[in-house]
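2024-03-11 09:14:02 DEBUG pipeline.ingest accepted 1 chain
2024-03-11 09:14:02 DEBUG pipeline.ingest length=272
2024-03-11 09:14:03 DEBUG pipeline.predict start
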Amino acid sequence: MLKEGPLILLDCRHYFHRHCLVSRICKRWTTNRITFSHVYCCLCNSWINCSNNPDIQSIVDREKKLYDQIVDNAMVRFELEGLHKDEAFTNPKGDFYQKKIEFALYKFSYYLCYKCENPYFTGMVDCVFEADQEEEKLQKDQLLCSECRDLSNIEGITECEYHGREYIVWKCRFCCNVSKFFCWGTTHFCKDCHTKQLNKDYLTKKSINEFPQCPGIDKCPLKMKHARNGEEFGIKCLLCDTNSNSTCSIPSNTDDKEKMNKDKEKTNDIEK
């Protein structure tokens, strides 16, 4: 009963036990994927605010800052990922009709980087896929954003001179197509390969020799030289590809990538 413990009155005019409220907020989300149900009032579904208690409000403000970071990133990705054309968003009868933020947070997945504690994009959400990855679950110290991951052994464009690593377009690890899913913060899948994994044809358990290799640049869907199927490969910067004011060249092999990195180092030396 409410009278059995210290009570907190939220700005939405609902009462909660202080211990229950603080415990719920501090537990945060229950899976690797960041969600925010813990900072919504379970009675009216409004964002929790507690202006009469600075200690609790400071915890809520921390979560609001994280929420704003994710929303800012999701709004940039919304059209780049084609969500503005999705029927759920454009159809007046759709569940997310013209609800841009809600739809983006429903479709996009973000994890919290273990090292820098910033949120990072991990691809499109697939609840079935997330529930069916018992052997693929990562420990907290394996959750690393692109800025904190060691990408030195990965070929292709892994960092843009203008936009960093956040908007790199990746090849599917397992075939010659552009990836659509980024799972566990480590593995890129195209739609077909992702479906195979969903259907328990576990590509992640196969050796590199079991994947069909590229037929050559002329017949390759990507029309470029790339790493062997079974390895990660960065194709280009998504923002540069859609912004005519800035471009980053796409290296066709490791030597070109090294040349680009050397040119960037020279530019940095000049600026210093």
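2024-03-11 09:14:41 DEBUG pipeline.report Residues 54-80 form the longest helix (27 residues).
2024-03-11 09:14:41 DEBUG pipeline.predict end
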